[in-house]
Amino acid sequence: MDKMPITAKGFAALEEELKHRQQVERPRIIEAIAEARAHGDLSENAEYHAAKENQSLNEGRILELESMIARADIIDVARLTGDKIKFGATVKLVDEDTEQERIYQIVGDPEADVKSGRVSISSPVARALIGKGVGDTVEVSTPGGGKSYEIVDVAFR
Fold first, then answer.
1. Residue 15 and which of 70, 86, 133, 139 are 20 to 30 A apart at CA?
2. Mean pLDDT in runs of 10 for the chain (157 residues)?
3. Cβ contacts of residue 74 below 8 Å, gap of 6+?
4. What three-state secondary structure class fits 14?
5. Is the separation of the CB atoms in 111 and 118 below 8 Å?
6. CB–CB of 75/7 below 8 Å?
């Protein structure tokens, strides 16, 4: 079983989602199934089938979360230092074509959210950045075409 790097904040979010799914969603779905059963014939009962589908999806996600939590390698980003980009680094980039600044933090797969500035360690952007430092230029192949960025800051926070 491969360990999966994750920040402490990302790990806490996984634990919170697991707790919610086990303690809130699971009982709600069980109640919905019981209520749908009370309506009679199950073969043509859409509410029952929808509730069973929700139960299946919820239980699948619970198993997925339990697996991620078991494989988690929690990394305290606040304790990291250095001038080279690695997991947990917050990187300020300047697009060399548009001069637009972007700030990304390199995080684990389950906590990635590009809209919030968190990119997965396995993403093309992160893979291009790992091992580089301030002043370096990186070429990134994206679905929208190649991009060239200059690294202007690296921080661990």
1. 86
2. 89 97 97 88 84 96 96 91 91 90 93 93 92 92 84 91
3. 6, 7, 8, 11
4. helix
5. yes
6. yes
Q: Which two tokens stand for residue 4?
A: 């999966």
Q: What are the C-alpha distances in Å from 85 to residues 65, 68, 81, 103, 120?
A: 28, 24, 10, 13, 13
Instruction: Return the closest-CA partner of residue 66 out of 22, 126, 128.
Output: 22
pTM over 0.85: no
Helix (H, G, I), strand (E, B) or coil at 125: helix
DSSP class of residue 152 equals E
Q: How many CA atoms lie within 13 A of 156 on its CB side?
A: 16
Note whether 105 and 88 are within 8 A (CB). yes
Q: Amino acid letter at 147?
A: K
Nearest one of 56, 58, 91, 57 to 77, comparing CA atoms? 91
